[in-house]
Amino acid sequence: MVRVEVIAYAPTDFIEEQDVTIGRCRELVEKYSVTWVNVVDPDGRTLEELETLFAFHPLALEDAQNHAIASKVDVYEDIVFVIARTIVWAEDIDTDQLSVFIARKFIVTIHDKVFPQLEDVRIRLRRKNPKMLKSGADFLAYTILDLLVDSYFPHLDRLQSLLDRLEDEIIKRPSGEGISRLHALRTDIVRLRNALRPQRDMFGVLARLEIPIFRKETLTYFRDVQGHMISALDTLDTNREIVASLMEVQATLTSNQVNEVIKVLTVIFTITLPIAIVSSLFGMNVAFYGFNEPVGLYIAVSLMAVLTVAVAVWMRRKGWL
Amino acid sequence: MVRVEVIAYAPTDFIEEQDVTIGRCRELVEKYSVTWVNVVDPDGRTLEELETLFAFHPLALEDAQNHAIASKVDVYEDIVFVIARTIVWAEDIDTDQLSVFIARKFIVTIHDKVFPQLEDVRIRLRRKNPKMLKSGADFLAYTILDLLVDSYFPHLDRLQSLLDRLEDEIIKRPSGEGISRLHALRTDIVRLRNALRPQRDMFGVLARLEIPIFRKETLTYFRDVQGHMISALDTLDTNREIVASLMEVQATLTSNQVNEVIKVLTVIFTITLPIAIVSSLFGMNVAFYGFNEPVGLYIAVSLMAVLTVAVAVWMRRKGWL
Amino acid sequence: MVRVEVIAYAPTDFIEEQDVTIGRCRELVEKYSVTWVNVVDPDGRTLEELETLFAFHPLALEDAQNHAIASKVDVYEDIVFVIARTIVWAEDIDTDQLSVFIARKFIVTIHDKVFPQLEDVRIRLRRKNPKMLKSGADFLAYTILDLLVDSYFPHLDRLQSLLDRLEDEIIKRPSGEGISRLHALRTDIVRLRNALRPQRDMFGVLARLEIPIFRKETLTYFRDVQGHMISALDTLDTNREIVASLMEVQATLTSNQVNEVIKVLTVIFTITLPIAIVSSLFGMNVAFYGFNEPVGLYIAVSLMAVLTVAVAVWMRRKGWL
Amino acid sequence: MVRVEVIAYAPTDFIEEQDVTIGRCRELVEKYSVTWVNVVDPDGRTLEELETLFAFHPLALEDAQNHAIASKVDVYEDIVFVIARTIVWAEDIDTDQLSVFIARKFIVTIHDKVFPQLEDVRIRLRRKNPKMLKSGADFLAYTILDLLVDSYFPHLDRLQSLLDRLEDEIIKRPSGEGISRLHALRTDIVRLRNALRPQRDMFGVLARLEIPIFRKETLTYFRDVQGHMISALDTLDTNREIVASLMEVQATLTSNQVNEVIKVLTVIFTITLPIAIVSSLFGMNVAFYGFNEPVGLYIAVSLMAVLTVAVAVWMRRKGWL
Amino acid sequence: MVRVEVIAYAPTDFIEEQDVTIGRCRELVEKYSVTWVNVVDPDGRTLEELETLFAFHPLALEDAQNHAIASKVDVYEDIVFVIARTIVWAEDIDTDQLSVFIARKFIVTIHDKVFPQLEDVRIRLRRKNPKMLKSGADFLAYTILDLLVDSYFPHLDRLQSLLDRLEDEIIKRPSGEGISRLHALRTDIVRLRNALRPQRDMFGVLARLEIPIFRKETLTYFRDVQGHMISALDTLDTNREIVASLMEVQATLTSNQVNEVIKVLTVIFTITLPIAIVSSLFGMNVAFYGFNEPVGLYIAVSLMAVLTVAVAVWMRRKGWL
Q: pTM for the complete prediction?
């Protein structure tokens, strides 16, 4: 169900309201230097009000509802529209969309599900962080996007440690199960990387935006987030290459196991061969020397012993025993 | 057989005619603010009339008939010529070409087979969608291309679910058949991606076209379609990497199966070896202790039991039993 | 042996001469609006005459003789020098070089072997195609290069059908021979692609050349050829990916066959094991129940039957029978 | 624990102090032409002083403490902020961050651990190298970064010789262990390459920086370091390709070993088959010619000899013996 | 040991001296229109003299001595510094560095070992080639670099024929040794390609250098060398892809061999199984029909014959015989 929250502030003032109307938000924009409207799971009526009261472009509002849009920046006359993605990792790893409208005196964020990164921003505002209260809407937008990108790193660390553990397991005890888990991890990394890659360019565009609603100082901040974004993608790229390499390792180790098993089979077959052959020979119903007599047993056993030792020595030389 | 359909409209007027001549279309262009001529499976005479009455460039008309042309935008003096591709998925997956001529007061679409996306646009026009009736030919072109790109996503979802199902099957029950189906899917994805990739640049060009027949507002719309196009290609790229990874998984799992089968062979051979060897030994025609007497049976059976247990224990330690 | 052919024309005039001298060609250039000199397998003297009479740059003439030069455009003061490649597919697939000098009033083509594409151009001229006779040397150059690129597509279709057939064969009956044929096809595709790739940029340069000897209209034509060139390379790229994928398929299917063969071995070994073991047991020279009596036979046969059925049931459960 | 060291010099003057305060550093900046402040493992208070006394941007100071930032150049009004990475190779290979603030009259370096490259710079300064004492802070920054890049090459040589040794081992005696070591080496190379790659662009930016604090002459120096950086990355790229190729070699050699082992098994099985079969035949309790008589033995042995020789000849023809 | 050679010429004059001093070279520069100084294996004193007498930048002189620098062009005020690489193929394939300083009236080349390409240039000069004697130092630089690039092609042809031969061998008789030789060849190609790749850009820069010491005409010449360089790299790229494909072929053929060997084992085992089983059955010490009588032999042999034929027929149907 739709939920609208608003925070408005000026260098010396701060107000926070829950479950308000878009109309009320519009009023606050007039009174405060910065107003932040957060719309959760918007319905049609709310979007219409945003279009009429805030003059948002219908295309941008449509994209804010579509959750398969690649990250991007669209610059309208006095509004910058940004689509960013956050990493969500409950059971599977996935990304979720945050739409941000940035204007000179307000920002509007739209999202679908719980967004803990926004709560962190709210806490900073509630604590009346002076730097934030003094800055404009552009700095608030930066703070939100900065915390969004910062929130990637614990996930990336977890991915890293998953990969490290899998690496250990595969090299110590390669098994058929390992390859499926590697594939699952690789799929996650590829999906994540392709979902976050457009965001690098997005921050690049933000860091070079020369428009009145962005102060020059804020561009420096966006450039910094872009640097962090690049680091996150570099980590994903590195892990993508490593997981691909690990798949090849797994394949070779599996081949190697085939090798080992066949060696065992060959060794067992070969080492017992003299006994089998000699006993078969002395089982023939023909009148050999020692037929049905103890001397036959002595000869048979001696032959077995000599041949088995010979085979064992040969195998040891080959390095199989 | 060639078929020409025309729709013409002005903010307060709307007319639709079937099986008309190109001459009639030309007349409508003069009377209405926007005229949309749709030519299905054009013959030589129709193309000639388009060349003489609408002043289309012969090269563009030639490309409109050739169905292996990569998507592109060609800008002539007062006409923009666009080649776009749609996904057709009957039995096999393939793409089909739509050629669009965009001028200030009319657009001409040329295609070969049934094009359901165009019907969706017609329905909007018939319903006298006010936004559309008020806008120019450039907005009509946007609507057509937007619906074209939107029509990709159900196909991509189907491809995705095919891949997911195949992924499940391969990991649960890898078989030789899986690899052929993976290859077929991969071929489809590669063909689709290479056919649609030029379209990303095509929309990029459209979104930056600064010519009189495109209003600045329309460029915003084309930029939005470009965003959707990028998302579609990202999905294809992601799936292309996953299907390639899955092929490696399949290869390793096949190797692993070889391993398992050889293990079974080795275990069966080894576990029955004591019985085979001992019975062969006691089958020798030499005078061993117990030869032709019950005591021989007891010794033989005891030996078999002891050795089999020993082998079983050794195998269990190796983790093969 | 060197051979020089010349065609000269004006809107209302047309002349064709064989085995002429370069001097004669130079004369025709003065008299007609467009002169096309075709030099086959040039010797040193002819090249010198071209340098002195037509003022060609010695470097360009050198490159025209070297047949390993990547496609390119070199723009001299009043001459454009183009190196293009054609596909030759006799037994093996290969490319051949066509060097074209384009000036305002003439073009000179130099090649080594038979060039059927040029004959097609000549036929058009002989038929006094009015569009061609009216146009300048730049349009003649376009016609030659357009027919060159058009001549790629039958070869690409043949390559495609070769690949399709190989694909079918490999998936139905994978064999060691398949991989060698795949490799041969892949080598052909890679060689062709790398030989033709520079041509895409070459046409890109031609389509943007703003020099007096190219009319603006002609640039539109070159842009169109570039589009066809891109399509040709896209096809090669797609097939290159598919043939690489097919190699992986072949590798996995080979592994799978190893699997099948070992399974057959294991099944045969295991299913006959009870008979082998039981007959070996009853072949022992010890006094078991039924020794040398019919009752022994009954017990042995019963044991064999029971155990064989048990093994068969177990194997069917494993899905191996 | 935080440690601040300072070196200040003018063409004819040189001073070095340990464990100083940031305030003292600020004083030296006023007195000397170049002051170099080195901050090891900075704490919060030191960073605050740097912000207030040297007017460093808080974002830059934050990045100087975060050790996962990709190399970059940030240009502030009169300060250039550079993040560079060094290779640390104790047990595992890793990279460490050096943050450098470059102004007209001073540079501040911040790092976490021991940085031997900086000691090399200090030694040059203590020896009162005239070129250095006469040059500005930009040349000092160049010297530091140049020695940093130069310090990569011994590590790259060590990596190279590790790879060469592994290459030899794998080709001579391929084993399952080899693949794990290859993977470890590949992981190191990939990590290193992705960590150092942004530095190429970083030096590219530095070499093109047209700002007052960099003299034009110094840009030539930075361009030279960029050349060395490119060589280092080329070496890593080459080795990355070679190690990937080696993995494929290892996989094929493992497959080949499977082949060899199965050949041995087949040869042993086949070569002893005549003896096994013939002795089994003559072990039948049926009245064949020579049953329980010496002549049976002669026949049996002759048969075995003839068949074994036949099998041996066949195998030698197949090239297996 | 250091060796300095000098050639100086004017349109009508030519002088060549061996083992001269740098001072003498400097004198010749004043007297002749072009002076070419060739320094082999320079020592510290020679480099110092070059720095003082020719005003070379110390960085350039340092790079001229370091032999691991990627090819590049550095433009100083009135000197262009070029690093180029030649292919050296004694036992292993490698590259060697040639440093060239180009000024308006002289060029200085520095190298370490014998450089046969330079001798070819000297021979042209000694023959008083009029084109060369009339041209400036820029044309001499072109001649040297052109011959350098031309000298790649025989090496590339040799590489090609090595690859072709290996291709033939692998497809006809795949063996474990083949993969090692493929890897060696691949390593050579990768090393060569990565060493020569920067040279393509180097010539690109030279061909676009708009500085007084390069006449416009010379740029045309450098553009031509760039074309040849691109062809050389294209050949390396093509061969790199083919050798990688060949490695996959080798891997699959090895797998296929495993297949063949196991098939042989299975066929031998299965075809002899009826004899083994039947003889084992008739070897039981139980009173079957024909026990110790000739009729048993007839039954046994008949059974063996019937079963062996049955197995053979089954195997032929499977295509294994």
A: 0.90
